[in-house]
């Protein structure tokens, strides 16, 4: 999957801008930098994995491995950034992004301290408030994780209500 837009026109995001779009904070903020994005299309971001991550204390002390669920979460956070940029809005304290589904998740190689997880996310479609993405995470050019993600953006006050179409 080739998702990195032309570097001459590439738009990027540093950690300060990422924090303006995502409510997550340490230890749950899992996107360090956006290398490039193109609204309505794709985004490429990175997560620098360090031995100082809290989850390595228990997963696993003798052979540190980033939990697969956190790799999926990092890709979902990256997808949320793309959605907000595509909609041209900054979320407020009432905006919440929820998973609606995760399909075809596959873990191809372990990710550990010193690795840089590069996440390529592509919008597949948007329908009735549900965003569907193709997500691939690589380390040194090797696929580490891939999945089809579905998310919806809701107002926190409406969060207890079913997503559109349910």
What is the highest CATH level, the class?
Alpha Beta
Q: Give the low-confidence spans.
A: none
User: How widely separated are the two ends?
Assistant: 31 Å
Helix and strand sequence: EHEEHEEEE
* Beta-strand fraction estimate: 35-45%
Give the CA-based shape.
Answer: globular
Rg is: 15 Å
* Main sheet overview: 7 strands, antiparallel
Number of strands: 7
> Biggest sheet, strands in spatial order?
1-2-3-5-6-7-4
CATH fold field value:
Thiol Ester Dehydrase, Chain A
Helical fraction equals: 10-25%
Integer tally of domains: 1
Structural class: alpha+beta
Alpha plus pi helix count: 2
> Would you identify the CATH architecture?
Roll
- In terms of quaternary structure, what is this? single chain
Mean pLDDT: 92
The CATH H-level homologous superfamily:
Hotdog Thioesterase
Keywords: Cytoplasm, Lipid A biosynthesis, Lipid biosynthesis, Lipid metabolism, Lyase
EC number: 4.2.1.59
Function: Involved in unsaturated fatty acids biosynthesis. Catalyzes the dehydration of short chain beta-hydroxyacyl-ACPs and long chain saturated and unsaturated beta-hydroxyacyl-ACPs.
Protein name: 3-hydroxyacyl-[acyl-carrier-protein] dehydratase FabZ
Quick take:
GO terms for molecular function: (3R)-hydroxyacyl-[acyl-carrier-protein] dehydratase activity. The chain is an alpha+beta fold.
